[in-house]
Amino acid sequence: MNKFAALSGEMRRKIETGDLHYGEKLPSVRLMARARRLSMTTVVSAYRELEATDLIEARPRSGYYVKFVASPSRGLGRLSRAPMQLEKYRDLMPDLLAEADKGNRVLRLGVASIENNLLPRESLARLTRHILRTTGAQAFEYADPMGLPSLRKRIGALMMDRGVAVAASDAIVTSGCQEALWIALQSVCKPGDAVAMESPSYPGAIKIMQLMGLKAVEIPSMPSGLDLEALEGALRKHKIAACYVMPNCANPTGRVYSEDTKQQLCELAGRHDLPIIEDSANGDLYYGASHLPSLKRYDQSDLVLFCSSFSKTVAPAFRVGWIVPGRFAKKAMELKYGVSLGTPVLQQMVIDRFICEGSFKRGLLQARRVLATTMGQMLRCVDECFPPGTVSHRPFGGMCAWIGLPSAVDSDRLRLMAREKDISLAPGRMFSPSSAYTNYIRLGWGGVWTKRAEAGVRTVGAVAHDLFA
Fold first, then answer.
1. Do 90-119+362-468 and 121-360 have matching folds?
2. Residue 283 has what pLDDT?
């Protein structure tokens, strides 16, 4: 290990365990170099790596400060470290979707979905009309349950952008990422099995596990990715059937695993013969200029079941996603056929043409730029109008921000009070099987920032102030 990696690794551990606290000033580059007998270049490289993973921040003319909060949330210590039943878990997502369906009356800050001002409606409508005019009855007939061959081929090309060589026959088209996750879990688990999952986590995955009669083991998510020591410890203590992760632009945190964490996780899975379900529904919405490598890129044992969707990038209501199930392909194909006989053909044809004409890549570049700007404006509002002690975890991609409120603020009460003002919020406990994160909220806005969205966030901040008082 080189010197700057050793220094950044040591400091990362101190920050993540709380030895270095939020807001604490780090030694200057000059002092750190002198104390460790390192070059200033080495220290600068270490600090920049920590800054890139959102652990520290540089303040003009002041120095570097710890940005990550090791344990700001009431209830974080209650994360389920042993397999827990999920009967009592309550998923609020159906309520949030119902609230969002009330037209323009409700400001939907609780749903991670493309807003109308970013949806490619005209292109999709034009392609739909063209397909209906030129293909006749084909768009309304049964097709290959595994998906249109042409779309599966294009999915293979998209996977190449993620660093994974995938043949068309390796991919199965699904009805959104939700069905892909269901197929993945059904392929590797049976009722009563335990699944390790990063925490906080996607409520839809928790709900599938609940319906399947599975148990959950929560593994903390750190700025650099899954806490691999905690996962290894859980594997030593418990029989775990699979691991569910969101390595790229996680929901709700927007975090991205470091490449070292991705590689080490795949190596750990290989040693334990542990299937990994990679949820990459938001992975294409990385704010950077390039595509993020998939976890499956490092999968030497063919244990990663890759799941993704066009719902976050093209159209939520189309419900078109895919799974690359690796060595579990036979079981996954049986499940896809058995549960739905295939994904609606018309939507597949539209997305196939949308990719073919280049609209998908152009739209993706635009969405990344818009969402990065939107998130900056949203977090600026949070910093200006939320109570003292609020911590905003800056995402690296996606449509959401994970906001830690002072411990006196109960996010369930905040949600109900915001709802009275026609604002939809997602409270933190729905992102944990053990209902942790009770003073967290997920704020989302999947489009161009508007005056109405800004007014809504400022209203939520005012309500949070009332609860904090």
1. no
2. 92
